[in-house]
Amino acid sequence: MKRRIASHYALINGKLERNAVITVEQDGTILSIEQPEVLDSCASVEFFPGIITAGMINAHCHLELSYLAGAIAEGQGFAGFAREIGRVRGNYSNEERIHAADIADALMWEEGVQAVADIANDALVMDIKRRSKIEYITLFEHFGLNNNSTDAIFALAAEHSANVTPHSTYSVQDRPFREICNRGEGVISIHFLESKAERELYSGGGSLAEWYARMGWECDFLHHGTPAKRIAESVPSDRKTLIVHCVECLPEDVEVIDSHINGGATWVVCPESNRYISGTTPPIKMLRDMGCRIAIGTDSRASARHLSMIENLRLLGDMPLEELLSWATIDGAKALGMEHKLGSIEVGKCPGLVLIEGVDLQNMRLTEESKSRRLL
Length: 376
Ligand SMILES: [Zn+2]
What we know:
Layout: E1 3-12, E2 15-24, E3 30-34, E4 46-54, E5 56-61, H1 77-88, H2 94-110, E6 113-120, H3 126-131, E7 135-142, H4 151-159, E8 163-166, H5 174-183, E9 188-192, H6 196-201, H7 206-215, H8 227-234, E10 241-245, H9 251-258, E11 266-269, H10 271-278, H11 284-289, E12 293-296, H12 309-314, H13 321-328, H14 330-335, E13 353-360, E14 365-374
Parallel strand pairs: 1-4, 5-6, 6-7, 7-8, 9-10, 10-11, 11-12
Antiparallel strand pairs: 1-2, 2-3, 4-13, 13-14
Helix pairs in contact: 8-9
Bound molecules: zinc ion (ZN).
């Protein structure tokens, strides 16, 4: 049966259009979009107060870490967080891990997430992702300065129809980093400049350099000069590249990467995670002013109170609501190569529909009460 769904506003072509009436087929395919002068005159319309968007795209998550909810205290800084995650990781059974991921997946769906770029270190929660109504792109992450063989991770990815990605520009040696970027296909996702120490490492200083020296680990990639140059000199220009976090990112880093990747990289911000770990915020104004493609990630429950896209948008502060909602929908879909079917309310697409409630519609701002829920 067809449904006619209406709201005060809907995000259509990047604009918040008034009085949108969206007619959908039973399977969710959008048949038509109308904007009558007065909604009252429309027959058999289901009205929902607020803003309707397409299903949202979570461009950075680690579903498998959902069991670490509340396990690591806030505000320990980047190094403290990394140390704590190593310490507590072994304290949980597989059943606990699977159960937590199952709940997090169901909640993300209810809150309107349609697709996720999900980082994984093992295959423990792959079944949940396969069964989920959410569309997952899994990226198995290669990690470790003493881990130069990529055979196991490529085998794991092949077994699960997933991608391989290098963890970051400070935790993977040169050969595996290049190999992963060149051999794989589809999206790669690189944790980038979450802390100053990543840049400092390349000039031989900072807390990462000290830690590596203590452990006797050597890096063979520092000749690139900066994390951004390493990416530009290692990633083929035709790969869809997600650059994640970017907290300490400077305009020259953006220029180096965006001038190399065809059509530019996608700059994924996870403000709740940055706030949780180190009380920092991503340089959203700079990224926006430079015309970057921006997408939104929740990161994991290890560093977030919940996997809420709306909470992450709210933490980005006073940005035009149309842009915030576009980052969470169509720009995320473009980042994952899913824009032909997801990310926007368009005739012929089947993008899911989400209601954003508790919005200050006078000033078009998210409020403390704002939340999202799935309509279909
Ligand atoms: Zn992450």
